[in-house]
Amino acid sequence: xxDCKFLNKGMLAVAALLGYVGVVTIFHRKYTNWGxxxxxxxxxxxxxxxxxxxxxNHAVTIQAPVEAVWPWLxxxxxxxxxxYSYSFLENLVKADIHNADSIVPEWQHLKAGxxxxxxxKKIYGDKTLLPVAELEENHFIxxxxxxxxxxxxxxxxxxxxxxRTHGRVEGSLSRLLHFLLFDPIHFVxxxxxxxxxxxxxxxxxxxxQPGQP
Length: 213
Description:
Layout: H1 2-32, H2 38-42, E1 57-62, H3 66-74, H4 87-90, E2 115-117, H5 121-124, E3 129-136, E4 140-143, E5 147-155, E6 158-165, H6 172-208
Antiparallel strand pairs: 1-6, 2-3, 3-4, 4-5, 5-6
Helix pairs in contact: 1-6, 3-6
């Protein structure tokens, strides 16, 4: 009887694993390119030279001008405004991230050569520091080890926020792990980041406009 129960549990585990692999395989292209248009997938972006295999492209439309969104983007960092994502998940790995709901003047200064910290210095030391490879104010940040964050104006009050993740994964096993684990997790966290910046920027911008409540 015990052997039968063990066998049944094993079969359920295998079925669950195969189901997960199937879902990831079917929807991989969809979630790795969530929100991005065909034109955005094809367009060259700063930092593309850092990419050696197909990257993820996530994007969202924000009802605010670029100048109203940039201050939220430029202050990202573990020891700054956080990443506007699921901090409770980030803190499960002791990243010690706290998302800001306001623009902080002292966090508005960032330039190429600076670094952005992803996790707690106390826990991880400087292993989570990523260098800013390129930066153009109100336009883009290229963060080596992550990707390119681009703000593109559509008109005076609307813009697109695009994140193109750079892929540099060595070895077939690492690529498989990225495909099965990293890519889905990255999508969940980065989508929340895009929506987190969108919500904050739109709320702050429209609150300042005449005629708005």
